[in-house]
């Protein structure tokens, strides 16, 4: 049956099916319905459908532990959303109190940042309300105890919104199934200042090797601040910085 | 001018919410108003009480309360502020709304009348509505031909022609005289010469007729909207669970929103008080609602109220509600962005209110970076949207621990899962002598901060003070 006859018979054309955002060929990335948010890392953008963090779907991040640079990976996108797009960034149930000077230095506009403390089921509820509100550009949530049905509900809400959603879950959740269209396991890179991203799931062909990114890391100080009279309390520390002590 | 008359034929009955059917209201031993089930039993207004009881022995009777009716009429005038700020009370049981300026806003006359009717039903009143260019004509039409709409003074005589003389409310002697010379409707009265009418029925009747036709001005005092809103609502039954209070509270909310619209104001704080029965010896419970910005959006207030009521445990059944708005702030109309909506300030304000209603106001906050040297003092939680930033000196971590964690020291090097590698530093922070010893203050600190890397590749912010090494933050 020709394509025209199929369309006349009320069946969708194959080209139309292939143009849908949730259908892709095994060897290429899917077409994203909304343009992605540039992540600030070119190598990563090349590997993501939509050439950036995808909107309108969960982005599930599974870091092996805290402090390896998982926030530095998101900061360029959050800064872009809050400063360039003038939308709000909502943090739900962060594990520690966020430290304002660092967020401001990363470029996030603090006047459009909302920090919500919530426990258990309230955290997922707060995420759902944030997805329903307009004016929220990005949502960063820590849901260590979320079950599959909660994630599925959030994914359905996310498909209706244009919000960028980062969901942090413990590394143990790698083995569980998840409705999120993009899942990335994060691990410390081989050298300091690098982060290794293992793309567990994306709308497109699988990627075997993990991706290594160079993160923006705190630069060495150019000069000492607050010079005061008196003995330094950390002579030992100063010694330990010297190569002789390190050897 | 275009006047909408709102007559409430059953108002004497409707001010008694806790009446079991069949019921009626009496004044001086005669029935004034009765509910449908009493009407089916053959009771009608004007009947003597003894006759009514003979027909329906189970009839519940309340003595008419003029004070309650006046209060209810004023409450309804507050509610009608949503449609126009030009409202006149027409005791005993009617309101007049001047609506010529509201037609476009509400999408035309038909849509406006439909909204008035449905809103009136939601307030629990049966209403008869009519529209006419003069207040008296609107009242007359609402009394005898509810639903009629006459838009121009020229069409008034035709519209009023088939009304009975009863609408003029003539004294009995003059009414008998008018019937005596064979006049039964207003149309027949209007055909007679006015000078003769004035001699026979008195000048007052002719003046009333001229006012109804718009030939003579009919100035009326406007209803003065009160300065503070405090409305009381008796519930028809004792309510045991907080969720079902929402339905009753919605009535009060609509009145409050109408009052706010007429005053072009919004509220940031509302208080809902719930009265319990006296023998329970419980003081009234109260709910305080707070909003991020002044608002008079009924749906938004209702959403916050629903969250609060959902978390409320009632100690005793509730018999009455009271809604109080004390402080109002000026709030103009809505401004639309030139290109669609502006960047969602409104949406986020509503989000903040909903989250705060459920999680508590201290759980939903913004962040501000302050110009302070001591790291604990440089970051503070502030009300949402009030965050601001000052450029920080040096490298600062993304997360700051609430309490610095002591680290072990082996061979002069701090340990956390192995020896830490110090990457940069020291940054000396020595400050805060002024609040040394104060309760809750950080006090005097002398610290050297370093950026360190643990063997597990965590980036840490650690410091060394006289007490040893401490972990203070995570660069993540």
UniProtKB/TrEMBL annotation, chain A:
Q: Which domain of life does the protein's organism represent?
A: Bacteria
This one is known as Translesion DNA synthesis-associated protein ImuA
> Which source organism does the UniProt entry give?
Azospira restricta
User: Taxonomy-wise, where does this protein's organism fall, top ranks first?
Assistant: Bacteria, Pseudomonadati, Pseudomonadota, Betaproteobacteria, Rhodocyclales
TrEMBL record, chain B:
Superkingdom is Bacteria
Ranges for the UmuC domain?
22-138
Q: Which Pfam families match?
A: IMS
Q: Keyword annotations for this protein?
A: DNA damage
Q: Does the keyword Transport apply?
A: no
DNA damage as a keyword of this entry, yes or no, is yes
InterPro entries per the UniProt record, alphabetical: DNA/RNA_pol_sf (IPR043502), SulA_CellDiv_inhibitor (IPR050356), UmuC (IPR001126)
Q: Name one GO biological process term.
A: DNA repair
Matching PANTHER family: BLR3025 PROTEIN, BLR3025 PROTEIN-RELATED
From the Swiss-Prot or TrEMBL record, give the protein name: DNA polymerase Y family protein
Q: What is the lineage of its organism?
A: Bacteria, Pseudomonadati, Pseudomonadota, Betaproteobacteria, Rhodocyclales
